Amino acid sequence: MIETSFHPRRSCLYMPASNARALEKAKTLPADTIILDLEDAVAPDAKDDARDAACNALADGAYGKREMVVRVNAMDTPWFADDMKSVSASKASAILVPKVCSAADIVKISEIIDGENASDGLQLWAMIEMPMAVLNIAPIAETASSTRLTTFVMGFNDLAKEMRAEQDRTLFTPAIAQTIMAGRAFGLNILDSVYNDFKDPDGFEQECRQAKAYGFDGKTLIHPAQIDIANREFAPNEDKIIEALAIIAAFKDPANAGKGVITVDGKMTELLHLQQAEQTIALAEVIAAASQ
Hints:
By secondary structure, the protein is α/β, with parallel strands linked by helices.
């Protein structure tokens, strides 16, 4: 299992690596994570140039505290091998691989990264966007214990295409539940799919709230206009922080020493609530530090 430092992933913005203006603009955006895209956002005849542009941008090192990820082309494409070779040697934080279908895919990709003598901290992220990936989600997640896999990224546009289904989020509820349960069982981060209508902030906000309620760590984005909403909705709000601090303080009270269940503000509170409170405060502190 790869060891990684904690990083908020409230807002993970796809930016086409073939677009020089987009690469420059990303340096000024308040997204937690920038995903330089070599796949869907790049035309076939621009793939090689986009790969070079992404690696050069990462070498520039002008993205501050933002987590930098590169989405490569799928394993069955003619660009995959060169993508993996170049990005493995870059300053990327993670490689995001689309169209993953099995645990064997994850093992093979991780071995490729190792074979390129990549840095120990380079993570593997996997798109969950194929029906076979959903069916194999538990074995895929389990590979996190022995590979570079750290993160699942849902991709409902491709999943809908493969299912021959409409773009109706309710159709993906079983896939969401299975992916989140498998991911949490094996210590993975899980990011929600994109919201296609960036001119509909109200709909996007509602979907962010639903995603947070499901258990997602954050959301992938297609437009900078979505960043502020995602950052707000996936961050602990003031009420949650106050509640978390009260729980932590109550368990630290000598009067409650050794107790597994106590009462906080009239509510039964267990050790699991203490763990959740500590996670809330840790996230709030990291977000605060990143914004300075």
